[in-house]
Amino acid sequence: MAGYSGYLIWRIFLGIDSYQFPARNYGDLAFRTWGTSLRHLTNSLQALALLLILGQLAIQFGQNISEMSRFRLCYAVCPVLFVCAGFFITQIRTLKAYGWVANLAVWMNLLVIFITMGVIAHSPPNFAIATLGSAGSAVDPTTITKDEHGNYPPVMHYNGLPPGGLIGSVNGLMSGVLAYAGAQLFVEFLAEMRRPRDFLKAMWGAQLFICTVYLVYGCFIYYFQGQYSYNPSYQGVSTYGWQTVGNAISLAAALIAAGLYGNIGIKVLYNNVLIDIFNAPPLITRRGKVLYASIVPIWWSIAFVIAAAIPDYFGFISIMAASTLLNLTYTLPPIFALGFDIQRHAIRTDMGEGFDPVTGAVQRDGSNVQRLIRGFLSGGRWQVSINIWHVIYFLASLSMCGLGMYAAIEGEHPSGRFELFPRSAR
């Protein structure tokens, strides 16, 4: 379904982009299909999602630094170190400058995967860290709790839905939503590449690569660690030396990713909110560059507050994915596609409707409601069936958003794991 959403975004982009009126961001799809209100909602949701992703990276790699220090550093200090490094990287204003370092980050992540697989296959799970956010802590905390003799339960696997049923399954699904949440950035990359076909080949190649590598990797980790499987997996390694290797390499790769998300997030905020609503100066001007540079520390400071306040990585992912990423990847693309198709098929060219390139005038007949109904029911049976499917897809995704938020909150509340700082980090 993530691939289908990506296809919808690609098709709409090709339909609305032009030399005179280019589509530059995700919000432009909302504006061209449904108007200003949905554009502001989309831009705000995308900016919030990118900020939360930045906070997620600060949480994850604050834990990296904390683990490397053997928890001698106060946890609140660890995200500060990551944020300070990311602050300087985000001063880069163009995506082109990230090209070669982003490619390097992919190979660094692969190296971490290979190291983790080799070590986990020949060592026990990291029992201590499993209590902070493993699969067992989310599904059944008793499966990772010591007995009266101080021994941890053996590794176990579930062939069907685990105990706890719906809550645990939905929370696991939210991790999958995070893994396939890149559709919100498609338009930004398409706009900068200016080669939609090349982008499509690169995107599907990346999806095949991710599916192959991470599916095998996830099955491998779950086989050896079962309910002790921890996210991020390289922190589930019990040997401190190899923990440090994985943490150090992934930390370098994460700074590249954080710079990318920070760059796009701040540009979404600046171009689509500050300029459109508050008349901020363009980014190419001197005042715009100064204002951009001043926003960067504020942006990263908010990411630090998120990371310091919510150190539960697994729980935070579920809440973030359900509230923002799911909507951006699954809820909005079908409604954009529906609006795009309705507008196309509502035009009656035989009656003189449409855009006149000579005079620059637009001829429309009927009210907005009449045009919506006419566009929805036009185009033949196949097109009407597609319109109905997009409505169902939109409503199902919206329902999943509510269910995901409910499961994320329920998964946290009974265990009492929403501590300001975990005991091991105090």
Automatic annotation (TrEMBL):
Q: Which GO terms describe its cellular component?
A: membrane
- Name the residues that span the membrane: 44-61, 73-92, 98-120, 164-190, 202-224, 244-270, 290-310, 316-340, 391-409
Q: Which Pfam families match?
A: Aa_trans
What keywords were assigned to this record? Membrane, Transmembrane, Transmembrane helix
Location in or out of the cell: Membrane
GO MF annotations in UniProt: L-amino acid transmembrane transporter activity
Ranges where the Amino acid transporter transmembrane domain occurs:
178-338
Q: Where mainly found?
A: membrane
* Membrane topology summary: Multi-pass membrane protein
Which InterPro entries did the record assign? Answer: AA_transpt_TM
PANTHER family tied to this protein: AMINO ACID TRANSPORTER, AMINO ACID TRANSPORTER TRANSMEMBRANE DOMAIN-CONTAINING PROTEIN
Protein family per UniProt? Belongs to the amino acid/polyamine transporter 2 family.
Q: What is this protein called?
A: Amino acid transporter transmembrane domain-containing protein
